[in-house]
Q: What sequence folds into this?
């Protein structure tokens, strides 16, 4: 049944069938071996087959290769952990510019909790004195941001990048401290 050698030595095949016979069905995710000898993660379902008298006649086994799904879940969990624990503000947006994710660093930098920010427009992060009309389209928002960076460049901040660290440095120097609410 494609069991690894260590599982066979431990008696796992017999144990799996015993549980299926007792409970009628047994499901697990575990390592299996392909014909070529490579390992994969499988979702295995054992079903006990009984006749009308309740006598065990055999087993039906469904085995699905879920290696890609498991690796994807692990990768997603790893990336999620990185986003949660990084010191860089990371904000997820929908195409129209609605905030859909907000990490703790963004909370620290901008002063809004995730509950306050998620579901709001990205324009939430632009100070009121910079907007004549907060209901601009996302392309209008992009134009306004470009104008803002050009103005900073004209004022001698041409080396300013668009990353949160450079904004934080400017904010700490008092150059654009009005751009963000106090933390």
A:
């Amino acid at each position: 049944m494609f069991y690894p050698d260590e599982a066979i030595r431990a008696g796992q095949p017999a144990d799996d069938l015993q549980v299926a016979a007792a409970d009628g069905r047994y499901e697990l995710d575990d390592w299996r071996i392909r014909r070529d000898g490579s390992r994969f993660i499988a979702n295995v379902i054992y079903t006990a087959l009984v006749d009308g008298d309740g006598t065990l006649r055999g087993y039906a086994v469904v085995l699905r290769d879920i290696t890609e799904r498991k690796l994807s879940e692990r990768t997603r969990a790893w990336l999620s952990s990185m986003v949660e624990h990084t010191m860089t503000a990371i904000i997820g947006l929908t195409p129209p510019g609605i905030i859909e994710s907000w990490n703790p660093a963004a909370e620290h930098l901008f002063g809004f909790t995730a509950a306050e920010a998620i579901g709001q427009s990205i324009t939430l992060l632009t100070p009121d004195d910079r907007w004549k009309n907060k209901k601009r389209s996302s392309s209008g928002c992009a134009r306004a941001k470009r104008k803002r960076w050009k103005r900073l460049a004209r004022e001698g901040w041409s080396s300013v990048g668009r990353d949160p660290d450079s904004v934080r440095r400017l904010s700490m120097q008092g150059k654009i401290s009005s751009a963000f609410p106090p933390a």
User: Anything to note?
Assistant: Helices lie at 5-9, 12-23, 67-85, 104-110, 114-117, 138-154, 164-172. The chain has two domains: 5-70, 87-179. The beta strands are 25-33, 39-50, 56-65, 91-93, 99-102. DSSP finds seven helices and five strands in the chain.
